[in-house]
Specification:
By secondary structure, this protein is mainly α. Among the domains are: 87 residues; 53 residues, no CATH class; 68 residues, Serine Threonine Protein Phosphatase 5, Tetratricopeptide repeat (Alpha Horseshoe). The chain has 13 helices and 2 strands, in the order ββααααααααααααα. Helix 5 runs parallel beside helix 7. The longest helix is centred in the N-terminal third of the chain and has 40 residues. The two termini are 16 Å apart.
Length: 304
C-alpha cells in the first residue's frame, strides 16, 4: 500500500519513495553529523589551547564552522519552497503567496493524543493512530515524539512515503534520535533495501538510551533476517527481543516462524501457545492461536 507525494501542504499522487530518496536522507544526515563532529572536536580542544597561536587557530576553525553551518537552514527552507512550487506546477496552478498561519502550541493537550496514538500502534490500529498523532501535531507542531510516532504508524500502515517524510524531519532536527532511526530501518525493510535496513537498525542499537527503540530494533533485525532467508539469525534476534520485552507478542509470533522454518516444530508451537496465552485481545496473540490450531489440524501454515 502506497501513497503519493504528501506533506503538510502537498498531496500529489506520484510513485512511492525509491532507494535514491532514502539514501539522500542518509547523505544529508552525514553532512550534519560531520558538522557536529567538528563542533565536538573544538569543544574538546578549546580548554587545552594554552598558547595564543593555538587559540587563534581554534578561532579560525570556529569561524569556518559557523560559515559552513549557517547556510543550511536557509538552503533547506528555500528547497522546501521550490518543492512546493513544483507541486503547484504539477497541478497546473499558478504559484500562490502563502501567508504563514499563526501557530498555537498546546503540548499538554498534545500529550493526550500522543499517548492515545501509541496505544493504537500497540493494538495494530494504525489508521486511528495516524489520526490521533496528527491531532497531537496540530496542537504542538514539530513535537519530536509525536512526529516520530506518526512516522511509525504511517510505516506500519504501508504509507512509506509519508512515513519517510516524518522520519527526515525528526532526524534533521535530531540525528541521534534512535526511534526515528529504527523507523527508517523498517521502511528500508519494506522497500527490500536490506543492506540499508541493517545499517540503520544497528546504529539505533549502539547507544541503547531509548528502551522502546532498542526493543523494536531487535524485533526488526529478526524480521530482516527472516526476509533474507536466514531463520537461525532471525531466531537469535527475536529471542533477544522477547528477553528484553517479554510482553512484545509480535516478537513471539515471528519467532515461531523462525523456529518453524528450521523444522523446530515443537518449539514453534510452544512459542505461539505462549503468545496466545499472554493477551487474547492482542492481534498477534490471535494470529498465534490460529497457527496453533492449524498445526493441530495438520493444515499448512498461512501468514495472516
Amino acid at each position: 500500500m502506497t501513497e503519493g507525494l504528501a506533506g503538510t501542504e502537498a498531496e500529489v499522487e506520484m510513485d512511492d519513495v525509491d532507494e535514491a530518496a532514502i539514501r539522500a536522507t542518509g547523505r544529508g544526515l552525514e553532512a550534519l553529523e560531520e558538522l557536529e563532529r567538528r563542533c565536538q572536536s573544538l569543544a574538546e580542544r578549546l580548554p587545552r589551547a594554552g598558547t595564543p597561536e593555538q587559540r587563534e587557530a581554534i578561532k579560525r576553525e570556529i569561524v569556518h564552522l559557523f560559515r559552513d553551518a549557517d547556510p543550511l537552514h536557509g538552503r533547506v527552507e528555500r528547497l522546501r519552497e521550490r518543492i512546493r512550487a513544483l507541486v503547484t506546477q504539477y497541478r497546473g496552478r499558478a504559484p500562490e503567496v502563502r501567508r504563514r498561519p499563526t501557530v498555537y502550541n498546546d503540548r499538554l493537550g498534545s500529550s493526550t493524543f500522543v499517548e492515545r496514538g501509541w496505544n493504537f500502534i500497540v493494538a495494530e490500529r494504525h489508521a486511528e493512530a495516524v489520526t490521533a498523532l496528527e491531532k497531537a501535531l496540530a496542537l504542538a507542531p514539530g513535537d519530536p515524539e509525536a512526529e516520530g510516532l506518526l512516522a511509525w504508524a504511517l510505516a506500519r500502515a504501508g504509507k512509506l512515503d509519508r512515513a519517510l517524510d516524518c522520519v527526515r524531519r525528526v532526524l534533521m532536527a535530531d540525528p541521534d534520535n534512535e526511534l526515528a532511526r529504527v523507523n527508517l530501518g523498517f521502511i528500508c525493510i519494506e522497500k527490500r533495501m536490506y543492506g540499508e535496513a541493517g545499517e540503520h537498525l544497528r546504529r539505533a542499537l549502539e547507544p541503547g538510551h531509548d528502551r522502546k527503540a532498542h526493543l523494536y530494533a531487535l524485533l526488526y533485525m529478526g524480521i530482516l533476517e527472516s526476509r533474507r532467508g536466514n531463520p537461525p539469525g532471525a531466531a537469535d534476534w527475536l529471542t533477544r527481543a522477547v528477553e528484553v520485552g517479554p510482553n512484545l507478542i509480535e516478537a513471539y509470533y515471528h519467532l515461531g516462524f523462525a523456529f518453524h522454518a528450521q523444522g523446530r516444530l515443537e518449539q514453534a508451537r510452544a512459542v505461539w501457545e505462549n503468545a496466545a496465552a499472554r493477551n487474547r485481545y492482542n492481534p498477534y496473540a490471535r494470529k498465534s492461536q490460529e497457527l496453533v490450531e492449524q498445526l493441530s489440524a495438520g493444515i499448512p501454515l498461512t501468514i495472516s
